[in-house]
Write a structure and sequence with these properties.
heterodimer, A: alpha/beta, two-stranded parallel sheet, globular, disordered N terminus, B: 3-stranded antiparallel sheet, 3-stranded antiparallel sheet, 8 strands
């Protein structure tokens, strides 16, 4: 999972991918400092992280300059591990500040192509002629969760940005109408953030593995103590 | 035959032009704000044409639509959040329920993404059976569409035919997986079980039957004059618009875009071991989408016929630890599902549960074009256009 910079080609693996490296090089040439980090897995995928200022520029270049005309999806990532723990059977109501919470490691560690902030927006576009796809990522500053909208470039980003807006609380500049998409319009909170509890679990804790009720005639009532 | 085709195309472009002019007029009316009183029509959430609980708020001017606003979320189940507390094998249970008429196909891209992160590959036999079941869920899914499309224009019989013949395919899926709707059969590294005895003979028989069904639909629906009048030249999507909205599957192939993930970027499945064809139609209208799906169903039966003849022998499971921990990393895998391209972006931090699963479902993108597409159409065409875009509510709401 080590991210390599576009300019350094010291990757030990012998496999190189001319087509994908070329795309990264052209992005680097076009965006300059706007391209922060890139990662290529030969014959599999490309990841690029761009600066917040060049987020829309990157989309325009991908669509018009490189032929990535197909818009696949856009979403958000919250890199802060959940304070509630993510184990299957965590029934305890862990809240920030008590002993249980301090045991949970909350260091933020970003994934492929790195990152500096807790929240990232990521999107994917495809070049259907050559069968290539790119995942683009952008960091959102913690005090200003906004980024330029892609709707003017890819109209299909409209609903995806509305979803990211309600689920993460990101805002997209110049979006034609950031309204609730899935949730009721008076919903409070941003459910996909990691510090938003999974409420269904809170209301009714996961029972764990429960013994299925015995079939009639299977096992006698006298020695039922063993089942406990 | 050639002549006939040329004639219909000329007529078509006239109609396409007319609908464009109508759309422009509708736009102008909104901008100028003439004092004609508009009307707001609520279609859904409980409407038979919306296949579930999609609500469409249409602003009308006479019989013409000025603007539509689709409202969804009536069935949002929050799978992206739930997947963050479920172990990898448990996630397949959830994603079975995204597109519930072709459920097996939902599991495949997620399993493939997990396999890519774990660097395991399913043995050949598992890949072949996976492909067969994948195509079967396509048939089970699209059969419903073919019957339903007749229903949208008032023909009831095709819908009964669809349910009658879909049953055979569901029986086959049930025989292998134990589940008709939610198989939950795909595993990281292979499949849960092998094929039951006698299944291949039965499959061959059923595939023949499904081709007969396609012929029936062709004669009943496709050639029907009313059907043609209601779908030809209606709801035209130009290719570049479709691409920028992220349309996929038959919706984009109906606009003449020759793109199929099964052929162009195959992953973990063996479609390319067989001799098959990607069908496209240049018109981009409701009829084209119907026609492409009809051909695709037939093509799927041919793919299955070729695959069951040469299933390799061997194990159906790769060596995978009993407790699955997926190494840290990120992977995105997409496959050509019945409704279009479906992909899962899986972020793992090396634990039992995924850190984040982004579900890219086909219908969500396919329906996001409706505000653009339905502008300027007439009210009855809303139903046929929505029908031809073919969405499953679970695939929109996730």
């Amino acid at each position: 999972m080590s991210s390599t910079d576009a300019s350094t080609e010291q990757d030990a693996s012998p496999a190189t991918d001319a087509a994908r490296d070329e795309i990264v090089a052209r992005f680097a040439a076009h965006l300059g400092d706007g391209l922060l980090e890139s990662h290529v897995v030969p014959d599999v995928d490309i990841w690029l992280r761009v600066s917040r200022e060049s987020w829309r520029e990157a989309a325009e270049f991908a669509k018009n300059g490189l032929g990535f005309a197909y818009f696949s999806f856009l979403g958000g990532i919250d890199w802060m591990p959940s304070p509630f723990g993510r184990e299957m059977d965590s029934q305890i109501d862990i809240t920030l500040g008590n002993d249980e919470a301090s045991k949970i490691d909350q260091t933020i560690e970003q994934g492929i192509a790195g990152g500096e902030t807790r929240f990232q927006v990521f999107a994917r576009v495809n070049d259907i002629v050559n069968g290539l796809g790119i995942t683009l990522k952008v960091d959102l500053a913690d005090d200003d969760l906004s980024v330029d909208s892609w709707v003017s470039v890819y109209p299909g980003a409209n609903w995806h940005e509305r979803e990211a807006w309600e689920m993460y609380g990101f805002s997209f500049n110049d979006h034609p109408g950031l309204r609730a998409l899935y949730l009721p319009s008076d919903f409070e909170g941003h459910p996909l953030r990691k510090d938003y509890p999974l409420l269904a679990r809170r209301m009714k804790p996961w029972p764990g593995i429960v013994d299925v009720e015995q079939m009639p005639g299977e096992g006698d009532d006298e020695d039922g103590a063993s089942s406990d | 035959m050639r002549m006939e085709r040329a004639v219909t195309e000329a007529a078509l472009s006239n109609r396409a032009q007319l609908s464009y002019i109508a759309a422009q007029a509708a736009d102008a009316r909104v901008n100028v704000e003439l004092e004609t009183e508009g009307m707001t029509l609520n279609i859904g959430p409980q409407h038979p044409a919306t296949h579930g609980t999609l609500r469409i708020i249409a602003k009308l001017d006479g019989e013409q639509v000025v603007a539509v606003d689709p409202v969804m979320g009536y069935m949002h189940r929050g799978y992206e959040k739930l997947a963050e507390v479920r172990t990898y094998p448990q996630v397949t249970t959830l994603i079975n329920r995204i597109d519930w008429v072709g459920s097996f196909a939902n599991e495949v891209p997620f399993i493939l993404a997990a396999e890519r992160l774990m660097e395991v590959e399913a043995p050949p036999r598992a890949q072949w059976i996976r492909t067969i079941l994948f195509e079967m869920s396509r048939i089970a899914n699209i059969t419903l569409f073919l019957g339903d499309m007749g229903l949208q224009v008032g023909a009831v019989t095709p819908a009964f035919f669809a349910f009658r013949d879909r049953e055979h395919v569901l029986n086959l899926i049930e025989a292998v997986t134990g589940g008709r709707f939610h198989p939950n059969f795909d595993r990281i590294g292979g499949l849960k079980d092998d094929l039951p005895a006698g299944w291949i003979t039965e499959t061959r028989r059923v595939m023949k039957k499904m081709r007969q069904y396609c012929d029936e639909i062709e004669t009943l629906v496709e050639g029907n004059e009313i059907f043609q009048a209601r779908t030809r030249g209606i709801g035209v999507i130009p290719a570049h618009i479709g691409l920028s909205y992220g349309l996929s599957g038959a919706n984009i192939r109906g606009s003449g875009v020759d793109w199929d993930v099964r052929r162009d970027s195959p992953c973990g499945m063996v479609h390319n071991e067989t001799d098959w064809k990607v069908w496209t139609h240049p018109d981009g209208d409701s009829f084209a989408r119907f026609w492409v799906r009809l051909q695709e169903t037939r093509e799927s039966t041919r793919i299955i016929d070729q695959l069951i003849d040469n299933i390799p022998s061997g194990p159906i499971m790769a060596k995978v630890p009993r407790i699955i921990k997926v190494p840290a990393g990120e992977a995105y895998v997409e496959t050509e599902n019945p409704l279009g391209v479906m992909g899962y972006y899986v972020i793992s931090k090396g634990e039992l549960v995924p850190y984040r699963v982004k579900i890219r479902s086909a219908s969500f993108n396919n329906i996001s074009i409706t505000p653009w597409l339905l502008k300027g159409v007439y009210v009855p065409d809303i139903i046929t256009i929505l029908g031809s875009l073919y969405f499953i509510l679970g695939d929109i709401d996730r």
